[in-house]
Specification:
By secondary structure, the chain is mainly beta. The chain is built from no helices and eleven strands.
Length: 116
């Protein structure tokens, strides 16, 4: 069993910044990847960023590349998303995902709202 808890969402003005956190617990030993996805109302959930536990290799969607930075703390089974230069189109529920033993697990999500 894996549990993921996200925090750090909120309301910011365009151009502002937020830092999201996700902490995993349970059967997370040797997790392979953690990442962030987001979903706006009426839209499909989309990939935002991902990082591997072993090596810390990162991937970003084109829409956030250069603005968002994903980092990890392996000792705490945690992942973070630093979001800068936020745009109204970044408004969504942001979900943390962890992959371990070939299975994916999701957090409950945290709301990010960017006003113009």
């Amino acid at each position: 069993q894996v549990q993921l808890v996200e925090s750090g969402g909120g309301l910011v003005q365009a151009g502002g910044s937020l830092r999201l956190s996700c902490t995993a617990s349970g059967r997370t030993f040797n997790w392979s990847g953690m990442g962030w996805y987001r979903q706006a109302p009426g839209k499909e959930r989309e990939f935002v960023a991902d990082i591997s536990r072993n090596g810390g290799k990162t991937y970003y969607s084109d829409s956030v590349k250069g603005r968002f930075t994903i980092t990890r703390d392996n000792a705490k089974n945690a992942v973070f998303l630093q979001m800068n230069s936020l745009k109204p189109e970044d408004t969504a529920i942001y979900y943390c995902k962890l992959v371990v033993a070939g299975l994916g697990y999701w957090g409950q999500g945290t709301q990010v709202t960017v006003s113009s």
